[in-house]
């Protein structure tokens, strides 16, 4: 486990929830601030953006992904699409300050070395690396130099590629590493999620793990909490009908709040794993369980036979599991039908 700001991330700690604003601000700092407000209101731990210079991220001829074409409804180059979604470094300085004022952890994914340097310079507490850069060893090695916690998304990856990334970071002295299972499609179909792979990753590398969700709705992130996610990340937006590549696969404000509520309720319900009755069950136990009672009127001195025993509520007497210890014993007093028979009712 490790800390991001004042939050402990890892086993036995409350799930660290990241509200992924990404580029759903559409290049508008005012919309970005509204996303911060929404994240804060929902009760997440951190709000995350994406920091990049389009010129350093893509070539002019790189094409949009299929999901981007589908979600935007038109085809263009990645460069032209991303250029519309950039925020300036000055915007991010303002956003970081705004998050500090709102007491929510600011995070942003760098997509190039220059952006990583900038984010480190403004005091970002932890770095998130996108699925697309899991195999970008030069970027990983550079970010590792900051000696801050690093969260890796692992969409499109196999275990060997995840292992390479972890080894790279550890060789640079970084021990505070988390890996998020992910399916890199927007939205991701349920049959492609393979949620059990989250724990395969955690167990394979003995590492903090979690899930970055791109499915529709809130069911799967809540399910990931039940499976033991240490970190959960989910895209959100102010309005799914806004223009842009990620809005349709994002939660609206009410949904984000419901997701957080569902995750927190799931965490409470998980408990400590020890099978034991709760204090609230004691009254129900006495009402619902049964005690050993007489099936007929039995006189003092008579020997108890199996046919003399019955088992009825309430359960505040001798448990039916002790019935064999009564058989063949003599009663020390008269017992009426339905009266409880206890060890004090029989001779030693």
Structural class: alpha/beta
Separation, N- and C-terminal Cα atoms: 58 Å
What is the CATH superfamily label of the largest domain? Answer: Aldolase class I
Q: Which word captures the global form? A: elongated
Low-confidence stretches: none
Q: What does the largest sheet look like?
A: 8 strands, parallel
- Reported CATH architecture of the largest domain: Alpha-Beta Barrel
- What is the N-to-C succession of helices and strands? EEEHEHHHHEHEHEHEHEHEHHEE
Question: Could you please say which CATH topology of the largest domain applies here?
Answer: TIM Barrel
Largest beta sheet: strand ordering: 5-4-3-10-9-8-7-6
What is the rounded Rg? 30 Å
List the total number of helices: 12
Helix percent reads: 25-40%
Number of strands: 12
InterPro entries: AFP_Neu5c_C_sf, Aldolase_TIM, NeuB/NeuA, PseI-like, PseI/NeuA/B-like_N, SAF, SAF_AFP_Neu5Ac, SAF_PseI/NeuA/NeuB
Protein name: N-acetylneuraminate synthase
Pfam families: NeuB (PF03102), SAF (PF08666)
EC number: 2.5.1.56
Gist of the model:
It is an enzyme of class 2 (transferase). The protein has twelve helices and twelve strands.
What does this molecule look like?
With 348 residues, this protein is of the alpha/beta class. The chain has two domains: 10-270, TIM Barrel; 279-345, Type Iii Antifreeze Protein Isoform Hplc 12, CATH 3.90.1210.10. It is built from twelve helices and twelve strands. The chain has helices spanning 29-42, 54-57, 66-72, 78-83, 89-102, 113-121, 137-144, 159-171, 197-205, 219-226, 253-270, 282-288; strands spanning 2-4, 7-9, 16-22, 46-51, 105-110, 127-129, 150-153, 177-182, 208-213, 231-235, 291-294, 309-312. The strands form three sheets. An eight-stranded parallel beta sheet has the order 5-4-3-10-9-8-7-6. α1 (29-42) links the parallel β3 and β4. α1 (29-42) runs parallel beside α5 (89-102). The two termini are 58 Å apart. 36% of the residues are buried. The mean pLDDT is 95.
């Amino acid at each position: 486990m490790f800390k991001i700001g004042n939050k402990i991330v890892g086993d036995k700690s409350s799930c660290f929830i990241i509200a992924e604003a990404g580029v759903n601000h559409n290049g508008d700092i005012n919309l970005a601030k509204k996303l911060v407000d929404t994240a804060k209101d929902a009760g997440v731990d951190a709000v995350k953006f994406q920091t990049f210079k389009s010129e350093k991220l893509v070539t002019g001829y790189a094409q949009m992904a299929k999901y981007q074409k589908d979600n935007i409804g038109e085809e263009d180059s990645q460069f032209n699409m991303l250029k519309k979604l950039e925020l300036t470094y000055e915007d991010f300085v303002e956003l970081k300050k705004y998050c500090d004022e709102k007491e929510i952890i600011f995070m942003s994914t760098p997509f190039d070395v220059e952006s990583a340097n900038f984010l480190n310079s403004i005091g970002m507490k932890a770095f998130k690396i996108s699925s697309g850069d899991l195999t970008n060893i030069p970027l990983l090695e550079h970010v590792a130099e900051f000696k801050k916690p690093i969260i890796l998304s692992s969409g499109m990856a196999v275990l060997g590629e995840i292992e390479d990334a972890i080894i790279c970071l550890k060789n640079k002295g970084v021990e505070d590493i988390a890996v998020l299972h992910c399916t890199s499609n927007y939205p991701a179909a349920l049959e492609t999620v393979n949620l059990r792979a989250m724990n395969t990753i955690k167990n394979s590398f003995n590492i903090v793990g979690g899930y970055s969700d791109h499915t529709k709705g809130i069911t799967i992130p809540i399910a990931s909490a039940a499976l033991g996610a240490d970190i959960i990340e989910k895209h959100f937006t102010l309005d799914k009908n806004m223009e842009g590549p990620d809005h349709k696969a994002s939660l609206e404000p009410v949904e984000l709040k419901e997701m957080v509520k569902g995750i927190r309720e799931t965490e409470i319900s998980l408990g400590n794993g020890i099978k034991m009755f709760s204090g609230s069950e004691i009254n129900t136990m006495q009402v619902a369980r049964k005690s050993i009672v007489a099936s007929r009127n039995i006189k003092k001195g008579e020997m108890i036979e199996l046919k003399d025993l019955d088992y009825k509520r309430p359960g505040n007497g001798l448990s039916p599991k002790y019935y064999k210890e009564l058989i063949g014993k003599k009663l020390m007093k008269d017992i009426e039908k339905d009266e409880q028979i206890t060890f004090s009712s029989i001779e030693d």
